[in-house]
Structure formats: C-alpha cells, structure tokens
Design goal:
- It is a single chain.
- This protein is an alpha/beta fold and 187 residues long.
- The chain folds into two domains: 42 residues, no CATH class; 127 residues, no CATH class.
- 25% of the residues lie in helices and 13% in strands.
- It has five helices and five strands, in the order E-E-H-H-E-H-E-H-H-E.
- Strands 3-4-5 form a three-stranded parallel sheet. A two-stranded antiparallel ribbon has the order 1-2.
- Helix 2 packs parallel to helix 3.
- The radius of gyration is 19 Å and the shape is globular.
- It starts with 19 loop residues before the first strand and ends in a 16-residue tail after the last strand.
- The relative contact order is 0.13.
Length: 187
C-alpha cells in the first residue's frame, strides 16, 4: 500500500481538508446515508521486506527465548535478524490503532502480535484485522490470541479485555483494498 497519486487524493473535497471518507455501516449499505470523513496519516511498515525486492524478503521463526551469544539458531529468529526491538518497539508503544491486513496471524510473527497484545491490554488502543475467508470474528480473535507466544497463559480477564478491542473485517473476494483505496493501476 502506498499513499501515491494513483490511489490517494490528499485533498478530495472542495471545502474540507479531510482526505478519507467512510460509512458507519457495511460496504453494501445504502449509500444515501451520511458520509463521514477524517484524515489518513500513516506510515506502512513492511518488516518482512518487499515482494518486488527479492533480497529484502525475510523468513524465519520467532522464539520466546534463544541464546543471544554464539548460537546459530539466532540467525533464524526474525526479530533478531531484522532488529525489531531497535527499529519498531517505539511504534508499538505509540500506536493508537493497529490494522492487520494480509497477515496469516501465525506464531512466526509472535513478536509483533505480542507487542500489539500488550498495547491493547495496557492502553486504550484498538486493532482491526482484515481476514480473507469465511472464518468468523470469534475464530479470528482466538487465532490472534493463540499466536501471542508470550501471553498464551495470560488471565481470562486480560484475554477478554484484549479481545474486546479487536474488530474483524472479513472478506470473501480478494478485491478488498485497504481503507477503501482502489487499485487504479489497471485503468
């Protein structure tokens, strides 16, 4: 996703400076309802690299504990190799709204999911998960919670609080564009 001139208009209204519109109801809802607007101010982080830059792609594992000394295992740990703590910890501590789009929600990304879990638990942040398939909101939330390695044994009340701050958007056709942005490159 890029906020570029092909899919993003920074000044879409004549008299308002907002650059993003949305509706409070489902995508299929009657479009005669009130249109809400806001600002899109974001930075998209691609911690696993870019598909069009093959050498940037990062695969690996996530382990709660590993020998940080001479162990060869650490070369397979994504959070170590990509220096997540140094590069991204501040984002997890400052973000108010997390959006997961196009992520499998597996334990391989536990560093990220655990950080988001901590933010949801300790601050009034929220998470929106875009999930492809006919899965169900409860199942997607459970998948997220079970992939948080460092919080797998957390109390039920903490897990319930975190779950209440997760919102799931399911889609069945792979034509859903992030935040309603359109793929205009095919025109």
């Amino acid at each position: 996703m890029y906020l570029d001139k092909d899919q993003f208009e920074p000044h879409m209204y004549k008299y308002a400076d907002r650059n993003f519109k949305f509706y409070l109801n489902d995508v299929d809802a009657d479009r005669s309802q009130t249109v809400w607007s806001s600002y899109v101010v974001c930075e998209v982080i691609h911690p696993h690299g870019y598909q069009y830059i093959p050498r940037s792609i990062l695969f690996g594992i996530d382990k709660e504990e590993y020998d940080k000394g001479a162990s060869e295992l650490k070369r397979l740990v994504k959070s170590y190799w990509a220096q997540y703590e140094i590069k991204y910890r501040s984002y997890l501590e400052e973000t108010e709204l997390f959006i997961i789009y196009g992520m499998s929600l597996g334990a391989m990304d536990a560093w990220w999911l655990d950080g988001i879990y901590e933010a949801l638990l300790n601050r009034e942040t929220e998470l929106i998960i875009y999930k492809y398939g006919n899965v169900g909101s409860a199942e997607v939330k459970e998948l997220f919670l079970n992939s948080c390695i460092r919080h797998k044994d957390d109390t039920e009340s903490n897990r319930n609080l975190v779950s209440s701050r997760i919102h799931v958007v399911e889609f069945l056709e792979n034509n859903t564009y992030f935040l309603g942005l359109e793929n205009k490159s095919n025109r």
